[in-house]
Design a protein that fits this description.
Order of helices and strands: HHEEEEEEHEEHHHEEHHEEH
Radius of gyration: 18 Å
Number of helices: 9
Largest sheet: 4 strands, antiparallel
Protein name: Crp/Fnr family transcriptional regulator
Structural class: alpha+beta
Organism: Nocardioides oceani
Helix content: 40-55%
Strand content: 15-25%
Bound molecules: adenosine-3',5'-cyclic-monophosphate
Distance between the termini: 35 Å
Shape: globular
Keywords: DNA-binding, Transcription, Transcription regulation
InterPro entries: cNMP-bd_CS, cNMP-bd_dom, cNMP-bd_dom_sf, Env_Response_Regulators, HTH_CRP, RmlC-like_jellyroll, WH-like_DNA-bd_sf, WH_DNA-bd_sf
């Protein structure tokens, strides 16, 4: 699977090695791969489908950290520092993940010269993304955050058709979209409806079509 190798920054040979150590696991829709607070004994690579990462806040309100799709890894943090899972991973669609046990992960890290730089790059990227999220929460208004989310989902899950329309089958409910933005459902819906009213997007059931990505991007800046 060359796209997987590219996603992980691995060449073919190293990838074959890594993949041999994984076990295939199927996760039915709505099932949890792991839960916040439990000890972590494996990391996972998403091969098919999508999952959401939820964190329950002190107030009991769930917040979604990220939506994961093919090529994404999840669960490495507990393996690295030995602490509990920092979030719950739930399948939004039937998903297939590749599971790597702690022992194999430790061995891979010790034996593969490419492993540590790869992992550091991955963690650095996530830290950058988290900093962007924090900055958005502090400085950007909800419509801007919604526009940025739509662009991010388009990047991650969008498929462009012959007319240049980018179709995003995000599989998220309105409530989950709001949890990703970090705002109330009504506020997020209002922003989406206003983008739709301007002809930039078209809203479907658990999907969004981006009709004018350029205007949306200009708004998001
Ligand atoms: P772990 O803490 O073992 O379990 C939850 C996982 O969610 C964590 O490892 C990371 O792999 C992943 N994770 C945590 N925070 C983020 C984030 N902001 N974006 C993407 N993935 C994350």
């Amino acid at each position: 699977n060359p796209s997987l190798g590219a996603a992980l920054g691995l060449d073919e040979e190293v990838l074959a090695d890594v993949l041999a150590a994984f076990e295939v696991r199927e996760v039915p829709r709505q099932a949890r791969l792991f839960e916040q607070g439990e000890p972590g004994r494996s990391l996972y690579l998403v091969r098919e489908g999508s999952l959401k990462l939820t964190r329950t806040t002190a107030s009991g309100r769930p917040s979604i950290l990220a939506v994961l799709g093919p090529g994404d890894t999840v669960g490495e943090m507990s393996l690295l520092d030995g602490s509990a899972r920092t979030a719950t991973a739930t399948a939004l669609t039937p998903a297939v993940v590749l599971e790597l046990s702690q022992a194999r992960f430790d061995r891979w890290l010790a034996d593969q010269p490419a492993a540590a730089p790869l992992l550091l790059r991955h963690l650095g990227r996530r830290l950058r993304a988290s900093n962007d999220v924090i900055a958005d929460l502090v400085f950007a208004d909800v419509p801007t955050r919604v526009a940025r989310l739509v662009l991010k989902l388009a990047d991650q899950f969008g498929l462009e058709d012959e007319r240049g329309v980018v179709m995003i089958e995000h599989q998220l409910t309105q409530e989950e979209l709001a949890q990703l933005v970090g705002s109330a459902r009504e506020t997020v819906n209002k922003a989406l409806a206003s983008f739709a009213g301007r002809g930039w997007i078209e809203l479907g059931r658990r999907s969004i079509a981006v009709l004018d990505g350029e205007r949306l991007a200009r708004f998001a800046r």
